[in-house]
């Protein structure tokens, strides 16, 4: 780890403000994700209903992704993020009010979750594209790693707290906490100074601009290869939506333990994120990417066959470690090999892949679990991830042979 880069980031006021705001907001969001899954399963007792939830999250992203990516390249990224937080507050409040009044239904959950996914599709390209404007090129790889550590910290803290709150006072309290958490980003954005984009020319908001972004991605093997890797891993090995079934029916535990199951991948990811900067001597980052995704798939298989709660925590935690290493490498590859005027659109295409993977994967997992049982469907997904990753490595040598110090 470069000490100078770490000190530089810690002195970067705008970067720190944004990360604090996002940390608080994301913790609330992950709390809500657990609450929604728990509430939906309690209402339906159906694995398929949890799978449909993934579809409800993905469809808005598919519809709005390229428009939002174009918007991130054309309009003020801070203002886009600001507006998204305001609408997200009302969305979370709606979930809370409907639950408190007893009017919540699976259909209303799907609608509100879909609306939040649409808002997320506008926030993500602006937020991710803004990072290179906040930090220097030398600091960027470390900033990506820190971002991933913080992200996974929220993915650990949010679910763990959510499980306890659900057990004590119900899902409606979780929804209210999430609504207030969005205020942290609003405050951070107000306190931040204006940011400038590093554009050679200002892109126009039109169909040609959208096509330009798509063409760039699919004409650059290094970029699209990393996106396909992301998709296959999260599509085939997505066990998140089935966690309530593993907790209740297989491991015979309650909402508190469910919170820990959701949090375990993030604990593994945080540990991997701390270790990763010391792995710079391993220059073949493409090979490390492939190995880390295969390691992820292997631990998903082991998780599926475990019937012991503590072993399950270990295996799902190790899967998070593998995912973390691959995520940092993929993100640096994409951002450092894309010009600033294309970053929003590149991120939007990537969002379809990394959002579509887990969300469609949740639907696939729900359907597969309905036909072949939950453990077998997850084991199949882990094996498919390993095989698909090896196939992509063979077909995309630019990615497999990628070398860099990040």
From TrEMBL:
Molecular function GO terms recorded: transmembrane transporter activity
Keyword terms, alphabetized: Cell membrane, Membrane, Transmembrane, Transmembrane helix, Transport
Pfam families: MFS_3
Record's GO cellular component terms: plasma membrane
UniProt entry tagged with the keyword Cell inner membrane: no
Annotated TM spans: 47-68, 80-98, 104-122, 142-168, 174-192, 228-247, 259-276, 288-305, 311-333, 376-394
Span of domain Major facilitator superfamily (MFS) profile: 14-400
Protein name according to UniProt: MFS transporter
Lineage, opening ranks: Bacteria, Candidatus Roizmaniibacteriota
